[in-house]
Amino acid sequence: MENNRVIIYDSTLRDGAQALGISFTVEDKLKIVRKLDQLGVDYIEAGNPSSNPKDLEFFEKVMKLKLNNSKIIAFGATRRANIKVEEDMNIQSLLNAGTEAVAVFGKAWDFQVTEILKTTLDENLSMIYDTIKYFKQKGKTVVYDAEHFFDGYNANSEYAMTTLKTAYEAGADAICLCDTKGASLPSYIGKVTKLVCQKISCAIGIHCHNDNGMAVAGSISAVEAGATQVQGTINGFGERCGNANLCTIIPNLQLMMGYECIPKENMEKLTPIARYVSEVANIIHDERAPFVGNCAFAHKAGMHADAVNKNTSAYEMINPTVVGNQRNILMSEVAGRSAVMSMINMVDSTITKDSPETKKIIERLKELEYEGYQYEGAESSFELVIRKILGKYKPFFELVEFKVIVDEPTVSSVSSSAMIKIKVGEQTEITAAEGDGPVNALDSALRKALERFYPQIAEIKLTDYKVRVLDSNFATASKVRVLIETSDGEEVWTTVGVSTDIIEASWRALVDSVEHKLIKSQICV
Amino acid sequence: MENNRVIIYDSTLRDGAQALGISFTVEDKLKIVRKLDQLGVDYIEAGNPSSNPKDLEFFEKVMKLKLNNSKIIAFGATRRANIKVEEDMNIQSLLNAGTEAVAVFGKAWDFQVTEILKTTLDENLSMIYDTIKYFKQKGKTVVYDAEHFFDGYNANSEYAMTTLKTAYEAGADAICLCDTKGASLPSYIGKVTKLVCQKISCAIGIHCHNDNGMAVAGSISAVEAGATQVQGTINGFGERCGNANLCTIIPNLQLMMGYECIPKENMEKLTPIARYVSEVANIIHDERAPFVGNCAFAHKAGMHADAVNKNTSAYEMINPTVVGNQRNILMSEVAGRSAVMSMINMVDSTITKDSPETKKIIERLKELEYEGYQYEGAESSFELVIRKILGKYKPFFELVEFKVIVDEPTVSSVSSSAMIKIKVGEQTEITAAEGDGPVNALDSALRKALERFYPQIAEIKLTDYKVRVLDSNFATASKVRVLIETSDGEEVWTTVGVSTDIIEASWRALVDSVEHKLIKSQICV
């Protein structure tokens, strides 16, 4: 193994699965295994077949998969105290999983041996020795996880080191130091890992938990100190504050520090795979996550956005596409003109940042944001603002009147209805619709009225609806900001509306939504 | 200053406000300032009055607040190249903000001086010197932020150090080293900070960004190397992957490392304040956040939960109540009954965790949570659920009918009206009210109708109203969860309602809100 090679050991399906809100089905796990193999991690920790029927079924199926890069590793405890290793059913179960490698965890902290396992320090050493020896004799590769190692070392460094030496003498191929409580400082982890690397000759690994918010840094620190294996999970999923996040560690080690973790050509799969795993786990993807979050390369503050356009290395640690992500330039109340220019130029390419129109548009943006509008993620509404200022906008219809009525108790199965009257040119259309709620009713009524004049309206469908209340000091008299996402099967666009009245705020977002479609189809005609 | 004192410098309202999806109103900022003062941070960075109308208004108001612990600090750039500092309008604006302290940022990286600012290395030094000197002469405390310091030091250590020395000679009270790109390893930050502390005699600070997922560790590393000021934001809010998270840094420094950051007695306010800021920012609180997330002390895996109950120091780094958090044993476990018991016992102290009623309540809770109810922060609604199951509830009124009408265009200054008919005993009351929006109208109408029977209703006032949309897959047919906060001047309580119809969801929360008041006044009578 070259000096710069770091083994990536993924525990998404074992440690990660212990996270609050995560419950993987067998199918979910198999999907994730395929993705992890595509990414190219070295080990995929898959739990213990004897844990429960689901895990047994999973093992049977996963051992039939043909994987190109990764090895499945079964995970379980050292033998129980005071019994022969051959007689421990969990050990037999690990053996029968049929994996090339097994991971065995044992105690390194004297206090835990006596108070939690309720056995002697010597018996614990035998448990470690016997278990690892047994698996080595059966031809397995063995990774030994020293649980609570850093706390154990702090309490009784001699005993902690003895547990490691015992594991080494029994033939462990790698010994992984676990910061199980997640409280160790990276500097301490580095110091202790260095000492261990000096005394133990096999590969040393690191397994951090994120309770102190420094699992990634602790892992990096251990590698700097000589560790050559890092255990963690995709997106840092795990109990409490999670495990060390491999999606942060891998780019740091490989792109920033020159280590080799996964095949080079697989790095661009990182973001898609991270998002995929969030999707399968049914967890909202952390958009602020380093490297793989949507915001990771999104610049907002005026000065920064300006500089990014001028010289990306000034502000970006890496090119986002390297990890399969993209640069997302946004606008805000402090945004410089350059941040808005690309949007303006999409409407009119002749406008420059010194044009008087640009100044007007930025002024208008500031005013609107002061009123509560937010165009990030609602660019289609901002495009309409630009069009209106540039004189490139003509209303498609005129609202004469609408009335929305909410009834309680409901006499039919729906509680809301909306009546609407619009004018297009000289023609008037009046219609009504029902809905599950007042906005649903109004949306249906508007589109029903417009379809008569603009058949393409039939192609659009609302796909998302968000409400944010602003200025909560004024309670129900406060403003609301409504975001509507619409799709016509081809494109998806988001529009925004703000008002003290939720119906009116929704109305504004709805109007922008249909107008975007109509402008689009007009341009295409 | 004692050796272990670390100054906490909060930039939630400046750097944090640059985060995607965050747009603080003036009121939001003032609320957060009060909370930050309660927490006891040393500095609250409040932006630059000249940025936009909102910030100007904010400064005028914040300077009138009476703060007990924190100092407001205005933030801006060094003077522009080739003009006198007195002639720079942004500098004048900072001066006129009237704060005791100002934060000035300038370039430390030679490449940025020439390529981004497009000026000479010497002029940059003059810009730094002139600006700091100017503010010192005006009697301000000055914090100098060396932008991109670590990258600048890596590129040209001599020039980077010269910029710091210049700042020091001009009289800077503290010099903050900024890892603006967020790519520096904690070990590098520690190494360089140590060198700076050896060469520069004033206080040294650290300002990390989280692009590499190690902003907290970088900050900790800098403090270990001699820094005595840490800049960051609540919940790590900020551009891209965020800023250094003060809610992680403060407990690490103070509880794990023996430093003094905030008054001891304020540490238990950390979690409530973190959650409050998330609420005001309208950002979903990160429940996996160290120390202040709901999951931070939540144990799920069978083995760990068992061990936690046996011996908490085995698995918990600190007692959660120290940071105002609680151990969250999930409802899905037997141990979860205890989490609900205290609420049940507030209604009926004879109920135990083995009572059949407890089981019924937990079952009902699971059903309601499945439907989208969430009682965290809406305990008053859950209290009503408990009362209904325990038979300690009698309706105060019966709804006969309500109708809410929203009109556009508005003929008067309000767009919504609500008609309501209720029955109390044998008597019927029908009335109507207007409002800025449908919920406002309905709320006014309900209270108007109830006041005839229950005069104490006049004491209550809605103080906050939040809407969350669930199941966004189904667009406007999706469910909404409405949270209503009500006050009677003495107590503040929050209630919740869920429905596909926002009016109905609001109705349910409103009913719970008034019933809580009526039960309360009934008990007091």
Give a description of the structure.
2 copies of one chain form a homodimer. With 525 residues, chain A is α/β, with parallel strands linked by helices. Chain A has 3 domains: 7-281, TIM Barrel (Alpha-Beta Barrel), CATH 3.20.20; 294-390, no CATH class; 398-524, Double Stranded RNA Binding Domain (2-Layer Sandwich), CATH 3.30.160. Chain A is 39% helix and 19% strand. Chain A is built from 17 helices and 16 strands. Chain A has helices at residues 26-39, 53-62, 89-96, 110-115, 121-137, 149-155, 157-169, 186-199, 215-224, 246-256, 270-281, 302-310, 337-347, 356-371, 379-390, 438-451, 502-524; strands spanning 7-10, 43-45, 71-77, 101-107, 141-147, 174-179, 203-208, 229-232, 298-299, 328-329, 398-408, 416-424, 427-435, 461-469, 480-487, 492-499. In chain A, the strands form 4 sheets. In chain A, strands 1-2-3-4-5-6-7-8 form an 8-stranded parallel beta barrel, surrounded by 7 helices. In chain A, β9, α12 and β10 (328-329) form a beta-alpha-beta unit. In chain A, α5 (121-137) runs parallel beside α7, α8 runs parallel beside α9 and α9 runs parallel beside α10 (246-256). The longest helix of chain A has 23 residues, at 502-524. Mean pLDDT of chain A is 88; it is low at 329-336 and 471-476. β11 (398-408) of chain A pairs antiparallel with β9 of chain B. Chains A, B: GO terms for molecular function: (R)-citramalate synthase activity; 2-isopropylmalate synthase activity. Chains A, B: This is Citramalate synthase. Chains A, B: Pathway: Amino-acid biosynthesis; L-isoleucine biosynthesis; 2-oxobutanoate from pyruvate: step 1/3. Chains A, B: It is an enzyme of class 2 (transferase).
